[in-house]
């Protein structure tokens, strides 16, 4: 691919608006920022919240992007921001927060007054900082509060914005289906573009959008660093399944443990490593104990990406039995499946959401119905009993990863969209409601 013009455009300065940065589980955002940095783009991160106390990926040390944490203190108390802003800026913030009615109610239904005030404070601060620092495009990840703040700041500063929609922010029920969908329509309509990580998501959002705004939604697969996630020496164990993800309902891990129980009943020699943590950890550990699978299934907790690569190198295949949760949440495009394919591993998952866009059933891996441990056990058994098929699937998986999930190419496309937005809006007049 030729170098994109956006990466060489010294006039392009992008402000990334994120809920928390960094997050251990959001490696796709860190990968994206690192690649934009490699491609020469000027980027700053604005985080609504400080990161939790959790491990950090070593590659975070390579990031040279400034990070600003927007204020979250009591809006009735005093707060200071060392940013070179003038007293008139403080006055502007006070005026915004003293409005008789809640600002932008169509974007903030169901939120209490304090939450609305906090978001308005953050949006106003972001707008002022962006103007002071020469930011000319905002981009958010997840169509939730981070996108709300980017949108409102964009209105105030007359700066275009875009966002990447993933999964929970698209499908989860926060208030009720009609209200949630109306908020999503407004955000799609005002965005310069909405990148989303699967064709499944793109079609859904396109149909959801207000008439004439569906074309704002564009497909952009998550990219993988094909040099970091590359096939290694042939040290794969012939009977080792690896599962990676947050221990939450939509990942479907109880069905994997059920499938492991069935495989043991069939007297197969294998073991399974489950990497991740989350609210379902105790219940999953309880299942392992109840089925007496302690010698077969290991809950390995969270692992930094460097250690995860080593675990994946020992895997026969990667398994992720995704389901649709009771709230409607589902995986958009599970990053671990892309990483596994890039490493030349067969993958097993379900035909939920965008997963069939990743796995070519019977060629790069297997797809089974969700919530079906028997079908899952059957395909895992095939991988155990036919090592050559497993190797062939992994080879095809790497080819597909190179063709569709190359981080350099996909982030280059995103950078081009940023540049197009800035060019289109250089002389545009933004109407502030």
Description:
It is a single chain. Mean pLDDT is 87; it is low at 1-8, 74-84, 86-94, 96-103 and 429-433. The protein has helices at residues 27-38, 87-97, 113-133, 145-157, 168-171, 177-190, 199-208, 253-265, 281-290, 305-313, 335-342, 355-358, 373-385, 387-404, 407-425, and strands at residues 13-20, 42-49, 67-69, 137-141, 161-165, 194-196, 217-219, 240-244, 271-275, 297-301, 317-320, 346-350, 365-368. A seven-stranded parallel beta sheet has the order 3-2-1-4-5-6-7, with helices on both faces. Strands 10-9-8-11-12-13 form a six-stranded parallel beta sheet, sandwiched between helices. With 433 residues, it is an alpha/beta fold.
Structural descriptors:
globular, six-stranded parallel beta sheet, Rossmann fold, 433 residues, 13 strands, disordered N terminus, 41% helix, alpha/beta, 2 domains, seven-stranded parallel beta sheet
For the largest beta-sheet, the strand count, sense and barrel status come to: 7 strands, parallel
Q: Which structural category do the helix and sheet elements fall into?
A: alpha/beta
Q: What is the highest CATH level, the class of the largest domain?
A: Alpha Beta
Query: What is the CATH topology of the largest domain?
Result: Rossmann fold
Report mean pLDDT, rounded to a whole number.
Answer: 87
Strand % is 5-15%
Please give the CATH architecture of the largest domain: 3-Layer(aba) Sandwich
- Order of strands, widest sheet: 3-2-1-4-5-6-7
The coarse silhouette is: globular
Share of residues in helices: 40-55%
Can you write the helix and strand succession as a string?
Answer: EHEEHHEHEHHEHEEHEHEHEHEHEHHH
Instruction: Output the CATH homologous superfamily of the largest domain.
Output: Glycogen Phosphorylase B
Tell me the number of structural domains: 2
Tally the beta strands.
Answer: 13
Rg from alpha-carbon coordinates:
23 Å
Low-confidence stretches: 1-8, 74-84, 86-94, 96-103, 429-433
Roughly how many Å apart are the termini?
42 Å
Number of helical segments with 4 or more residues: 15
